[in-house]
Amino acid sequence: MRIQGVVDNNVWPPRMGHTVRVWNLYKELGRISGVESVRVIAALKSRERGAGRERRDGVDIARIRPGHPSVFAWLERAGLAPLSLTAEGYRRWPGPFARAWDDGADVFQVDSLPLSPLLSHAPRGTLKVYGSQNVEMEWLERVGSDVARRPRWARFLARLEAEALALADLVVAVSADDKAAFVSRYGVDPAKVVVVDNGFDATGLRPPTEAEQAGARGALNLSPGERGLVFVGTDFEHNRRAVDALFTHVVPRLGEIGARLWIVGDVSGAFRGRAAREGQGRVRAVPAQADLTPWLWGCDIGLNPVTTGAGSNVKLPTYLACGLDVVTTPFGARGFERLGPFVVRVPLEGFAAALAGPLPARSGRDTALASYAWGTAARTLLDAYAVRLGAGSAR
Fold this sequence. Notes:
By secondary structure, the protein is α/β, with parallel strands linked by helices. It is about 35% helix and about 15% strand. Strands 3-4-2-1-5-6-7-8 form an 8-stranded mixed sheet, sandwiched between helices. Strands 11-10-9-12-13-14 form a 6-stranded parallel sheet.
């Protein structure tokens, strides 16, 4: 089987939830017997960098620069038009992608809604797949920009999402809730939707040894008996709201519970001033890092105070895979039902008390977590491809 993927940002290095999911699924697909090739076209933003062609971990990456997404990003910041309009550019000018994709692919998958018009230009006979990252209308309604939520543009996004679901032979959802939303909102045939959970890299993430943990704690200057707390997030609205909630409910009580907090990732940029003013020296805002190991190994508890957004949060299984305990909101645990017994789920106002209290027992945790490995998710996806190809919906 030959697989062609298309994504609207730089797939390598994977630094946010979207690219972490896409990259790890394609990487793991390429490792499965019977998969002849995996190619990914990455449409770069203006500030993203990377070689035009690269082969990494068995995946062939082609990078192109469409240009027009940067224009629409500016228009959205100016309040004139939504970023989702980039889809019309891809609809009208598919040429740069067509020159890069594999004409002999068996599977043609787009992993971003703005790219979904490319499904109508897919090589003849391929299995057309829409790899959703969430239900985009849920994202719009909960955390969308003011301009994107205007009635005209909201209707545009709803039509675009409906079109993607109709064009695709197979729809990939990140959770059972997302699948149910596609069915109820758009009338999609449930048999057309496969749930492929978000997960973690079982080949690259692990808990530290005692010596490694001691070294990481030393690098963070954590005292014996002091708890390290970490939140990892990109600079999106749902993460900004989550960090703001930490400053309300957790930061004022860090001294009382004997803890320090690290906010790591692009989202930290908006909170450096507050960390200096309000943290009593117990809060650090750390820019995005290529290697999160010092924080994932040195801290004790991963925080997921997310209360809005869509899809599911990759950070939750990542924390667990590195040996951290987890305190999360009920909303932040969505899509990871099998991990429910092994995390603390409390409302935001209960976070500080939960951090000072007992944490869940770990018996059975590794088994539950293993079911969310990207390798397992990739096999689920490959099986769904095979069923559709075998049913004659593609060559």
